[in-house]
Amino acid sequence: MISLAGRDILHSWGKFVFTGFGLGLLIGVTLVMAGVYRGMVDDGKVLLDNSGADLWVVQKDTLGPYAESSSINDDLYRSILALPGVTHASNVTYLTMQVRMDERDVRSMVVGIVPGESWGAPGWPPYLVAGRQITRGHYEAVADVATGFKLGDILTIRRNRYTVVGLTRRMVSSSGDPMVFIPLKDAQEAQFLKDNDAIWQSRRRTEVNPAFNRPGVPGLLDAINASQASSNSVNAVLVRIAPSAVPDEVAESIRRWKRMTVYTRAQMEEILIGKLIATSSKQIGMFLVILAIVSAAIVAFIIYTLTMDKIREIAVLKLIGTRNRTIAAMIMQQALALGVIGFAVGKITATYAAPLFPKYVLLMPQDSIVGFFAVLVICALASVIAIRMALKVDPAEAIGG
Description:
The protein is of the alpha+beta class. It has two domains: 2-44 and 278-400, no CATH class; 60-193 and 230-259, no CATH class. Helices cover 53% and strands 17% of the residues. The longest helix has 39 residues, at 13-51.
């Protein structure tokens, strides 16, 4: 039975191999699509891991700082530090924007951290592959290697220029954008302050507004102008708790006393994976279903064509007394062999193509195992049509041919 299928494959090996190669490319695309989804999930988890936080304190009734915008006062961290169970509390800002170097710009998440804090404070890049951490209060940056920046490069963020003093790796946003770390004060200016023209125009409007020039309200205009020239807001406070503390209890304490929204690691992971990438995961799932259907259709068509090409041979087999089970097994084995060749080509293609994609593609071994058996099942089901046709062949066709 095995030799019967093998001899038939050898007889038309060119068509069989090229068909397996084409099917393999399709399977490779399927594996890469699954890897894209895995990469999106991993980006979200890596973002939370690298933040070094156990709790995220954000603006009340928001999903910030990654899923929604959040703005809180930058002095809140002091009162949070005084709560039982809290060991570290650090201000942080996040701003996704184009970071420019000379004539090239890179889509990045700019992260504002407090320089001079203890090594490993929440929000800091946990490790560097080159250079040093930020030590000055202005105009220094640490960039992820995925940005393509190098030590000593001069970056332009809004109106200021920053020197890259350190490089880190695998520091990305939930959407896969590489991170660039700068001092918190600079990040606040980049995110919350208006440009000079906007400030000047706003002051002009304030000056001509009679409500702000009343004799009985001294200093009101100066206070408004001062508020336009500085910012005391951050996006979140990253909190690290003691090993003996319970995250939910500390979070509830902050909610009760500080009137802020607080998320634990599990809740933040649910926001990133369950909400931010939910639509993308559904879309990728639809593509996987479509690719599976197309793969099944291709296998069915090829096996059907190969079976049609040997109708006379099948009739001869029936004429000499070959059982239907043997003929069906021959066609089934050809379909499975086609699937094995296709999966081997697809796996190799996906492995070498994954690093070329701009987004992170994570190929999981368990996905490959599931994919292999799924391909075999699809090929087996796709051969049913050809088997049914072969079993209906009349042995008399061997004599009539």
